[in-house]
Amino acid sequence: RIVHVYETDPDNFPRLMELMQDIQEYGQPPADIVKELAPGLEFDEEGMPKMDAAAMGGMFPPGMPMPPFPGSAGDENCIIM
After folding, report:
1. For residues 22-36, b (16+ Cβ closer than 10 Å) or e, as one string?
2. Model confidence over 63-76: pLDDT tens digits?
3. Of 2, 13, 47, 59, which cross-links 19 as Cys (Cβ 3.0–4.6 Å)?
4. Is pTM, for the whole model, over 0.85?
């Protein structure tokens, strides 16, 4: 469904977000699939991907902290949560 909406009505952000939330209710995808799609991606003890500067392929300058994931320490200031 999400692919169909994205391909036929890509500007329908509310519907796309709704479908993404539906997908997230099923939890993390199986590790086999993730490893195939993102070889080398590592996960922490909570099952969240480790997203340090090295893992992001240099997207962030050295020493720049990564933004926290929802549910991690420091999300109490998040206005979305």
Report:
1. eeeeeeeeeeeeeee
2. 556 566 555 555 55
3. 2
4. no
